[in-house]
Amino acid sequence: MAKRIAITNTSPVIALVGAGALSLLDCLFEHLLVPFEVWEELIAKPDAPEPPALLALQNRSFHPLTHLARETSSLDNGERAAITLGLATPDAIVLLRVRVRGD
Predict the structure, then answer these.
(1) For residues 72-100, b (16+ Cβ closer than 10 Å) or e, as one string?
(2) What is the pLDDT of residues 61-101, one digit of tens each?
């Protein structure tokens, strides 16, 4: 099975680091694209374990966006950036966390 490209939002990175399983992304995907907006969310918390763990991945790269999808009140910048990059990257898998109202 060919490895694919993944684009991540902030929540999957936080969950995988918390479970000690972020390295799975190196195994499952040939490339992991991280929008700058997601990186900014991850580094906003002082001493967060996610930034160094993400930097340790061999297959990750960071991507600026020139145009975010239309702003909606239900999505933050990281989610919008991941979705926008996903729309522009054919055959990529977008890793998101689905929220239920009140979550």
Answers:
(1) eeebebbbbbbbbbbeebeebebbbeeee
(2) 998 876 665 665 677 888 888 988 998 898 999 998 866 55
Tokens found for residue 100? 């239920």
Is residue 93 within 8 Å of 19, Cβ to Cβ?
no
Domains of the chain, CATH where assigned: 4-95 (3.40.50.1010)
Coil/strand/helix, residue 6: strand
pLDDT tens column, 4-39: 999 999 999 999 999 999 999 999 999 999 999 999
For 12-53, the three-class secondary structure string (H helix, E strand, C coil) is HHHHHHHCCCCCHHHHHEEEEEEEHHHHHHHHCCCCCCHHHH
C-alpha distance across the termini of the chain, in Å:
36
